[in-house]
Amino acid sequence: MNEKRADRLSSIVQKAISDIIQYKVKSDKVGFVTVTAAKVTRDLSYCYVYVSILNDPHHEKFEALNKIKGFVRTELGHEVQMRKVPEIVFKLDESIENYRHIEELLEEGKKTD
After folding, report:
1. What is the DSSP track for 92-111?
2. Confidence of residue 65 (pLDDT cuts 50, 70, 90)
3. Which residues, including other chains, have CB under 8 Å from residue 73's CB and lie 6 or more apart?
4. Whole-angstrom distance, CA of residue 37 vs CA of residue 49
5. Which residues of 71-91 are buried (b: 16+ CB within 10 A; e: fewer)?
6. Burial class (CB within 10 angstroms; exposed 0-12, middle 13-18, buried 19+) of 109
7. Which of 2, 3, 59 is nearest to 31 (CA)?
8. For the CA atoms of the chain, what is the radius of gyration?
9. Residue 16: phi, psi to the nearest 5?
10. 2-36: per-residue pLDDT in tens?
């Protein structure tokens, strides 16, 4: 599969998984999840889904999300027409937390000046 097609499929999968988590998952344990990116491998065997979860310091919501990945994969197969539905691997996107930390450091630097 060429890279342009893989990128386009990744975008479609990101939107579909975001909608599945938001509208079809009934568990309160998952909470508010933002799908920040999805990357489908070239052979379509895996899809790495990067998520940001607010107020989850002990990663309980992330663990709950990992428990329903079979359901998410099944629903993805219904939503997106693919010959092979990739195995889903959720990963925490910590870029937002890193951004917040940098913002805090910059604010502290301004206060000390």
Report:
1. E--HHHHHHHHHHHHHHHHH
2. very high
3. 85, 86, 87, 88
4. 6
5. ebbebbeebeeeeebbebebe
6. exposed
7. 59
8. 17
9. -65, -45
10. 778 888 999 999 999 999 999 999 888 888 899 99
